[in-house]
Automatic annotation (TrEMBL):
Gene3D superfamilies: 2.60.120.200. Its EC number is 3.2.1.6. This is endo-1,3(4)-beta-glucanase. One of its GO terms (biological process) is glucan catabolic process. Keywords: Glycosidase, Hydrolase, Membrane, Transmembrane, Transmembrane helix. It is an enzyme of class 3 (hydrolase). Belongs to the glycosyl hydrolase 16 family. GO terms for molecular function: endo-1,3(4)-beta-glucanase activity. It comes from Coleophoma cylindrospora.
Length: 461
């Protein structure tokens, strides 16, 4: 047998010609080699057609003694059978591999598929650019959301402080610790604030061992001398001592009310408003049907918007800065029993205001619910629960906005709040106009008075 390459038909694969089965013990007439039984059919030698064709692609030829192609009139002859590494599978090739072109290689099939979008090896520069921008946007959104969530959850510790009594305003000497403001009202009130001598003459301020009274005049008429044609007499007191921080306890037995009235118990720096802030502890107008209002007034940069607060009152406005919302400040309102007839009918109560770096909190306790630590002179705000109004330092630097605070008590008449038509007649259904009513109805102000039991100021030690 001469040496030559495998027949071309093996490289392009055509079904092999059928192998003629021989009977046992018979002789092949065309071969001098005794017949040998065919090997058993092996189906596990070549797992797939890919394996089969991979073999031919890598080898390209077989040993010369392996396969001989003969004409159709002869049978396939297998010589040197034991030396042919592929001879055992010839039978399988004849019976188990279907006709047709060879299957495509795996890599060929993948080359025909659309590129996978998640495979960065297929990305263009534009794709990388868009991906980078999207990632940056996601990071910005996550950071902004995280900051807002963190901000909404910020809240001062309000850790317990040990307070010691510093000042007491009580008894017959109550008014000795105050200055009397005189002149026309800076808030456009229809009122004449009088000095100590006039206040005593018209019985507008007086004190006993148990109470201090501050009231509106009920004797002067529009035609008397003096008269109320340009405003009614009233009083505005300012404490001589000023405070930067502290715990303030106000025993309030009676609150002023009535058409045309605008009473307030508050703290401020009379010489530097609003830069040094204002804290309204009790405030209402006319019939006071809407309850007590607790408010901060400041320069710009103090807000309670989107700030976590712990309070029982209802928020009115969030921006504390002067000039916003018609200078309404950031107010919190109590229910209808927190001021006026409802509050007075309960025997009054105690207002407690804590001014500290962490924030400003105001509590209101009715007469039968005053904490024992207040009555015993050892107040501890950490045990009082939620305040009626809470103004934390989250977005308001308390130390910067509140300095040199004097205690102020007054009863204004009409003015830019109580005298406004929408409030005077619209909200409180008061008669005539505010100024006309105040000038001509002296006896209408019999309930327009403050009665205080005492003021006490504590400082943290």
């Amino acid at each position: 047998m001469t040496s030559k390459q495998p027949p071309l038909l093996l490289e392009y694969w055509k079904p092999p010609k059928p192998v003629r089965h021989h009977r046992a013990n018979s002789r092949n007439l065309l071969s001098s080699t005794p017949d040998r039984p065919l090997p058993p059919i092996r189906t596990n030698t070549i797992k797939s057609r890919e394996d089969y064709w991979g073999y031919w692609e890598s080898d390209k030829k077989l040993p010369l003694s392996t396969v001989t192609s003969v004409s159709s009139s002869t049978t396939s002859t297998m010589t040197s059978y034991s030396q042919n590494p592929f001879a055992d599978d010839i039978h399988m090739m004849s019976h188990n591999i279907p006709a047709g072109p060879p299957p495509a290689y795996k890599v060929d099939r993948e080359d025909t598929l659309a590129p996978r979008w998640w495979d960065v090896k297929n990305w263009s520069k534009k794709s990388f650019l868009f991906a980078g921008l999207a990632l940056a946007a996601i990071i910005i959104i996550v950071v902004v959301v995280a900051v807002e969530v963190e901000k909404s959850n910020r809240y001062p510790a309000y850790s317990a402080l040990s307070y010691s009594l510093t000042d007491t305003y009580s008894g017959t000497s109550f008014f000795d610790s105050f200055d009397y403001f005189t002149g026309y009202d800076p808030t456009s009130g229809f009122v004449h604030y009088v000095d100590s001598a006039y206040a005593s003459q018209y019985n507008l301020t007086y004190a006993t061992s148990d109470s201090a009274i501050l009231r509106v005049d009920t004797s002067v008429t529009a035609d008397s001398v003096p008269n109320a044609s340009t405003g009614r007499f009233s009083v505005r007191l300012t404490s001589k001592t000023q405070y930067d921080q502290g715990l303030f306890i106000f025993d309030v037995k009676h609150t002023p009310y009535g058409c045309g009235t605008w009473p307030a118990l508050w703290l401020s720096d009379p010489n530097n408003w609003p830069a040094h802030g204002e804290i309204d502890v009790m405030e209402a107008v006319n019939t006071a049907s809407t309850g007590n209002q607790m408010t901060l007034h400041t320069s710009s940069g103090c807000t309670m918007k989107d700030v976590k607060r712990k309070e029982t009152g209802t928020v009115l406005y969030s921006n504390c800065a002067n000039g916003t919302n018609s200078n309404a400040g950031c107010g919190v309102r109590g229910n209808s029993t927190t001021y006026g007839t409802g509050f007075n009918a309960l025997g009054g109560g105690v207002m407690a205001m804590e001014l500290r770096s962490a924030g400003i909190r105001i509590w209101q306790f009715f007469r039968d619910a005053i904490p024992s630590d207040i009555t015993s002179g050892s107040p501890d705000p950490s045990t009082w629960g939620e305040a009626a109004a809470d103004f934390p330092n989250t977005d308001c630097n308390i130390d910067n906005h509140f300095k040199n605070q004097s205690i102020i008590a007054n009863i204004d008449l009409c003015g830019s709040w109580a005298g406004t038509t929408s409030i005077y007649t619209g909200q409180d259904d008061c008669p005539s106009t505010c100024q006309d009513f105040v000038a001509n109805n002296a006896t209408a102000f019999t309930n327009a008075y403050w009665e205080f039991g005492y003021f006490k100021v504590y400082t943290a030690s």
